[in-house]
Amino acid sequence: MQIYGALLLLPAALLLGAFAYLPIVLTTVRSLFLPETASQPAEFVALENYAYLFDDPVFWKVARNNLIYALVTIPASIAIALAMALLVDSRMPGRGFVRMAYFTPTILPMIAAANIWMFFYAPEIGLFNGLLGWFGIDGPNWLGDPTFALPSVIVMTIWKEAGFFMIFYLAALQTIPPELREASALEGTGRWEHFRRVTFPLLMPTTLFVMINALINAVRVVDHLFILTKGGPNNATNLLLYYVYETAFSFFDRPYAAAITMMILVFLGLLAAVQFTVVDRRTHYQ
């Protein structure tokens, strides 16, 4: 019986080993070398790449950008997604159309969405500056000014992700027994109190799942940065995974890119452990 169970797990184990664990091992090994050249093979330097990483001002600027990006996009996307799910779960006219409108940004490819928002942010012919021009306001260069570039990328990300997270909350809301709302109404409980004490605690498993996905999304940003800003101006919108891409394929320093990747993996592992220990304790499973 144990052999039968092991055989059932074997395909998944092989896929995990080939596409998850083996790349981690190879990345770890590569981070311990200097980049090879046509005339010189890769030289083993142990932790030298990690020492350089901690002294790299660009890395810390990118890490700060990513921290701001995550601290804004994760709670904002979750809050908006939950609000949209509560709205479209109620009895409202045109509910199906509203659901479709909320979910439409999710099904757009990121490259297409980035090109749409590039038109919105264009300084001369863009939609946002055109609207500001009606009120006599000279709009900024949204993607070319370091002050506005990162907030502009954040706004586009929230618009893209909120509809995706809404689907999970909507599915979770439809599993909550309506008898709980009826019991709250008999007790004279208001809507906000019912949401705070009944609905939201029952949505905690979904919230934990969405938080983990939002965290992963906040770190693996490459495609729309490539279209919108390429990390500029002056690294104002450069984020960790794009910096890894830039280091490996623009500067051709793959060992240093591997070292940055390992730091990201360690950070995500620690953060996931905190989420599963702290948040999971407050999660009510049915």
Describe the structure.
This protein has one domain (59-282): MetI-like fold (Orthogonal Bundle). It is 73% helix and 0% strand. The chain has 13 helices and no strands. Helix 1 packs across helix 13 (254-279). The longest helix has 33 residues, at 57-89. It starts with a helix and ends in a 7-residue tail after the last helix. The chain crosses the membrane at residues 67-88, 100-122, 148-171, 198-216, 256-279.
List descriptors:
286 residues, mainly alpha, MetI-like fold, 13 helices, globular, membrane
Rounded to an integer in angstroms, the radius of gyration calculated over CA atoms is 23 Å
Instruction: Count the domains.
Output: 1
Structural class category: mainly alpha
What's the average pLDDT? 86
Q: What best-fitting shape do the alpha-carbon axes yield?
A: globular
**What's the helix-strand series?**
HHHHHHHHHHHHH
Write the layout of secondary structure elements.
Layout lengths: L1 H29 L17 H7 L2 H33 L5 H13 L2 H12 L5 H8 L11 H28 L4 H9 L4 H12 L1 H16 L3 H6 L11 H10 L4 H26 L7
Helix pairs in contact: 1-13, 3-4, 3-7, 3-10, 4-7, 7-10, 10-13, 12-13
